[in-house]
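Attaching the record inline, Q. Sequence:
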Amino acid sequence: MAKEILKYTIFLASPNDLSEERQAVDEVVKELNLTYGQKNNIVLEVLKWETHSAPGISLNHQQEIINMDIGDEYDIFIGLLWKKFGTKTKSSDSGTEEEFMNAYNRFTNNHDNIQILFYFKTSSPKSLNELNPEEFLKVEKFKNNISQKNVYYWEFDTTENLKNFLRIHIPKRIETISEAQDLSIKRQTIIKTDTSNEDELGLFDYTEIFENAVSIALNSLGKITEATEWIGHKISEKAEEITRISKSSNPNSIVIKEVFKRTAILMNDYSSRINIETPIFYANFEETIKAGSNIINLTDDFYQDNTISDLEDTKESIFQLETGINQAVIGMTGFYDSVKELPRIQKEINLAKRNLLQNLDFLIEKFKQSMLLAKEYKMGIVNKIDKLKIEKKKPEGLI
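Structure, as predicted:
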């Protein structure tokens, strides 16, 4: 059976140091076409120079060829920046900046027909040789400039983290556009036959994945929090022991060195324990958000009397996860501060301290990113529940 499909186009702009992330955008869009797109009778298409431009020649600058091939009829602009700003063009310091300004100028002229999503990658490059200070300063300057233009940008540390943000943000911004304009006039219409794929995951599959991933993630968070409380108590005991021995009238250097050694072993043991649990947590947290995003997108297809209560249960699971992450961050931050204050007493302790602080600094930042994503996903559930409640109140003929 044929049906009308409304088409939305997404223009992806970035320098060439984000090839993995550019591929990730394609993957998310394909996924959204199966979940969010099918139930809303829309299709998403990614526009980028690799697939929608071709070799050519321009009187002024190569960027003009890309601008001409891409056009300015896209609905969503997605910009990505990391350690490179890009190649200077005739009118801007990089192609990405020129493409952003084209989108921004469109928005200022008519804010109903375009939305802008911009993301900055925060992870460090594999080698310092990859970092160009001049390029980095240009990226920071650009970040400040778009903030002054009221662009609310986001930051991400891993490709999977970006994908989870996009799963939430793209549908949200499509709804922003659809609410602001008459789609029957503006949208390009495509006719296609209704097809199905028996191998595609469905709502019940994603629900099972979600529940399992949440359970494992919460378990890992509990172990991390428990280990942090344990090491904090042990370090306090060792600090008191060192103070007591050092204040004695005739301190035994052999005993003191042994205490130092045991303290360093404790710190290294804690680092090992959290390094085991953190990847388990993070993998399952990412799976939770991925499955949860698909649950939101597929909910309309399986609406029943208990759908809203099921979403409320999902929201409660995310709240528990958010609370667990927050407790882990509080515990690690407190422990980080106490370890940082330890004086440079002895070589083994100094090495263990440096290793531990590096691990904690990295993990605290990743947990904060996870908490931000959890809050964003929770808002997605709240919006879906509100929408379903409104639909439920409408007279049957208006739904």
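The chain has two domains: 2-193, 203-398. The CA atoms of residues 268 and 352 lie 6 Å apart.

More tomorrow.
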